Amino acid sequence: MRQLTTLPSADDARALADYLLTLKIDTQLEKQPEGWAIWVRDEDHLPRARQELDAFTRNPSDPRYRNIAHAADLLRQRKQQEDAAYFRRQARFQRRMSGSIASQRWTVALIVVCVLVSLISQGGHDRKIVSALSISPYRLGANTIEWPGLTPIAQGEIWRLVTPVFLHFGIWHLFFNMVMLYDLGGAIEQRLRPFRYLLLVLVLAVVSNLVQYYFGHPVLEGAVLKWVSLPNFGGMSGVIYGLFGYIWMKARFQPELGLYIQPGAVTSLIAWFFLCMTGWVGPIANGAHIGGLLAGMLIGYIPTLWRR
Predict the structure, then answer these.
(1) Are 204 and 238 a contacting pair, CB within 8 Å?
(2) Is CB count within 10 Å lower at the N or C end of the chain?
């Protein structure tokens, strides 16, 4: 903060300060024995402020200085409201981070469930368990797969919309997903109430499973690309990409939440996202990745639209 000048009249000092505020030059008035000192808060604005001071000194009775008080008061009120809203958000964030809500118990619980399901299903090799938790029960033949569509869900087995995310086929599939779930899910859980966090995971699970079921198996017949519905998929990766998309939007549009992804994690997720689409790493639930990512981005961005 640098002193701009000292004016003997309080009215003149206030008029110049009000005018400078309308030019986005914030000032502070200070009563001194020789008059009223005007301080410029941001030194980068000092050259412009000096130019305006010269103009004011030449003609302090110019109407632009005398009819500006109301507009300046409105700007000050708006700034006070913005500051108050910011401090409320910061206080709410500090409460969330310092209380029991800061724990990652629900993320750990999801990891425990995934590990238990993997053990019970023998890494996805127990077809009975896998079929029971898939989006639809299915039976594999030599070169065929049979299932009743989504009829079981329509008949009340609604858990099938979610349970495929707990299935993992192999130790590395499970390990990679659990590491990313702990990293991304834990960060979000620290900043959301348990109900909202679990609801987010639930929505991402349902969306990613349905997108994978309907659009995750493209088949090229001649020159025509067709989408074949298949029930034999599983994994938490659709939810993970949804959490990634959610954090991406929050970091971009609500940085006060403190959500952030390490650059190394971003690189790994994006590289894996596109590598999986090549088919070089075997059958991957690309539909779940895409559906989860888009759903997470949308959920993360919607509050920004509401505030506009």
Answers:
(1) yes
(2) C
